[in-house]
Amino acid sequence: MTSSIKAGIIGCGAISQAYFNGCKLFRAIDLVACADLNPDAARAKAEQNNVRAMSVDELLADPDIQIVINLTVPQAHAKVSMQILQAGKHVHLEKPLAMSVEEGAAVLKLANERNLRVSCAPDTFLGSGQQTSRKLIDDGYIGKPLSGTAMMLGPGVENWHQSAEFYYKKGGGPMFDMGPYYINALVNLLGPVQAVTGICTKGYAQRTITTAVNFGKVIDVDVPTHYSGNLVFSSGAIITMMQSFDVRRHKHSSIEIYGTEGSLVVPDPNTFGGPVSLYRPGNEDWSQCALTHPYKDNSRGMGVADLAQAILEHRPHRCSAELALHAVEVMEAFEKSSESGCALVTIHHSCPRPAALSPRQLPSILS
Fold it and tell me: Using one digit for the tens of pLDDT, what is the confidence trace for 212-233?
């Protein structure tokens, strides 16, 4: 395959450079332009990456650009994605798809009406660590998956992130910030979620920023900062999930899957690589597995490249809008369950399990 699709970026913040770097790894995507509400930010990124700086309106009007990468702030994700679709272009956006199921469903409806595609991060489940774990499960190394754990536990971001306040407002918190990584990884491994039960709490009413920028500023916490519950998968597996900004230290693995014939330790889904560890009866201890797939380093842009290649090959793309909407509904279900006394909440927006990647794919081509 020698064809490629031209793309542009809207939103030239910190995450944009990872996309500029990652898109260069793949033949299917040709990143040619960038735009930002701050023209100076767009010009700086354009000069750094040898692309054109444009206004948002100019980028959306450019007939050569077929895919627009939406890297705006989460509160603007749905609005900007709809502007991109109305301009007749496909979208890849950073997580989450939207601030609510209703917003996300509106984006999907417009995309279907315009016969356009929406792809959404995180794409880390396409990396070597998650794909190796997927292959071990699919090849039967742990038998039928029965249960497991998914843990993202930490003390919050106010001690290191210069924009910490956002993380304690609507659209932030440990679930909407980090939950998409874990949910996408679990759907890749086990298929879609059928129901959720959960409880949400807030450890601190206020937090104090200790970074150099805004040092000493006290911020109100408007969202839950500890989520705990269970995901019931259509396959029958049950995963215990915790996402928290209220934990000082812990010894849990990011993801563990327990099956009828063994257990699997899956890498941090916020990374592309390993390690992957397997235990089977008869072994004395865990065995670290060789990674079967490429792309173990930071490869943000894999989802964009897979979208482009899927368009060229007329096949489904893996970071689908259906998967992204499914993740939003699962995240919302924790708070719905908690508010109703931990009742089981049914997930209505399902999604197909993304196709596995081939371990024998050619360099720079996703297959």
Answer: 989 999 999 999 999 999 999 9
Greatest alpha-carbon span in the chain: 63
Report the alpha-carbon distance of residue 22 to residue 25 in Å, rounded.
6
Q: Write the single-letter amino acid at 87.
A: A
Extract the tokens encoding 205: 């009413």
Which phi and psi angles does 15 have, rounded to 5°? Answer: -70, -20
Residue 349 in tokens: 């927006």
Are 319 and 120 a contacting pair, CB within 8 Å?
A: yes
Domains parsed from the chain with CATH numbers? 5-124+299-320 (3.40.50.720), 128-293+326-346 (3.30.360.10)
What DSSP element (H or E) covers 266?
strand 263-266
Q: Report helix, strand and coil shares of the chain as percent, to nearest 5.
A: 35, 25, 45
**What single DSSP character describes residue 320?**
B
Beta partners for residue 265, in sequence order = 256, 277
CB 23 within 8 A of CB 7: yes
Is-cis flag, bond preceding 359, omega within 30?
no
Bridge partners for 238 per DSSP? 147, 232
Helix (H, G, I), strand (E, B) or coil at 277: strand
The 10 Å CB-count burial string (b at 16+, else e) for 55-65 is: ebeebbebeeb
* C-alpha to C-alpha distance for 262 and 271, rounded to whole angstroms: 24
121: Cα separation from own chain's centroid: 4
Residues whose CB is less than 8 angstroms from the CB of residue 285 and which lie 6 or more positions away in sequence, other chains included: 279
Tens-place pLDDT, residues 340-361: 999 999 999 999 999 999 988 7
